[in-house]
Amino acid sequence: MNTTLRAHLALLLAMILWGSSFIALKITVNEMSPMIVVFLRMAIGTVAFLVVWPWLRHGFVYQSGDWKFLLGMVLFEPCLYFLFESQALRYTSAGQAGMVTAMLPLMVAIAAYFFLGERNNLKQWFGFLIAVAGVIAMTLTGDNSAQAPNAILGNFLEFLAMVMAVGYTLLVKHLVKRYSAFVLTALQSFSGAIFYLPLALLSDWPSQISLSTMGWLLYLGLVVTLGAYGLYNFSLGFVKASTAAGYANLLPVFTLLFSMLILGERLTLIQWIAICVVFVGVYLSYERRSIIPKEVPPGITG
């Protein structure tokens, strides 16, 4: 198997892992406080990064003045990002939350237009409006269910999580010129564990944590955090950044697939049509020239 094929397989597996993380988060927040879930995930990730830190620390040489960018990065994600997303999955289904993430590349493009002076053509703006209309239609046409007791609120909270991911992406675009993606991810896990510790301590802890829930927490902290990023960064050594960015559009597809297979979620015909509208909008607004350098890690979605 040649390296290019391995890189594409690595990208595909990374998207599968990120897509499955929504299901893991949905299951765990239904069994315990979201703040406890996120803290344990961050703590597990931190321990994992401490184990491999001797191999990572050579990529970290602090440069004067970067504290404000690093602080902003961790504040956007994971601190505020997971604050919104963990709450979102209490009210909406994993599948619908995954569909909202399809808007992230478009939102980054708009933010880059205003803050970085990057230009988008009329077709891209039109595609963005179509994608937004599709997400709104998907939200409003869905009936409340056990998986989505308040889809409107949940999808809005997931949208706010995407806003945080946009801020994170713009800051990392600057920071990745100085620090490796893995070092930045390690800093996120460590900062997230500190941020969520007091929130977790103030929450009602369950009398016991089942083995299945602990398994999902380990999956989030180890497999998703380390595995997905490792696969993504490996692939970027062999494929173009625009190629890797294109795979991100598979995230909502895998999330929907896992939510139906594992959680038994079902969508109405109108919602399926709305999902198709979202993908049409994403396709129309897709920038063939990547606006994000290949070294930038994607937002920690899910």
Task: Describe the 3D structure.
Helices cover 73% and strands 0% of the residues. It is mainly α. It has one domain. The protein is globular and about 50 Å long. The two termini are 31 Å apart. 48% of the residues are buried. The model has no long low-confidence stretch (mean pLDDT 80).
List the helices and strands and how they pair.
Elements: H1 3-29, H2 34-56, H3 67-91, H4 94-100, H5 104-115, H6 122-140, H7 151-175, H8 181-201, H9 211-235, H10 241-247, H11 251-262, H12 269-285
Helix pairs in contact: 1-3, 1-4, 1-9, 1-11, 2-3, 2-8, 2-9, 3-7, 3-8, 4-11, 5-7, 6-12
Organism: Reinekea forsetii
GO cellular component, one term: membrane
Membrane topology: Multi-pass membrane protein
Name the descriptors.
302 residues, mainly alpha, 12 helices, 73% helix
In a nutshell, what does this entry contain?
The protein has helices at 3-29, 34-56, 67-91, 94-100, 104-115, 122-140, 151-175, 181-201, 211-235, 241-247, 251-262, 269-285.
Largest sheet: none
Q: H/E order of the elements? A: HHHHHHHHHHHH
- Give the strand content: under 5%
The helix tally amounts to 12
Uncertain segments of ≥5 residues (pLDDT<50)? none
Share of helical residues = over 70%
Distance between the termini: 31 Å
Oligomer: single chain
Structural class: mainly alpha
Averaging pLDDT over every residue, what do you get? 80
Based on CA atoms alone, the radius of gyration comes out at: 18 Å
Membrane topology: Multi-pass membrane protein
Pfam families: EamA (PF00892)
Keywords: Membrane, Transmembrane, Transmembrane helix
Domain EamA: 7-139, 153-285
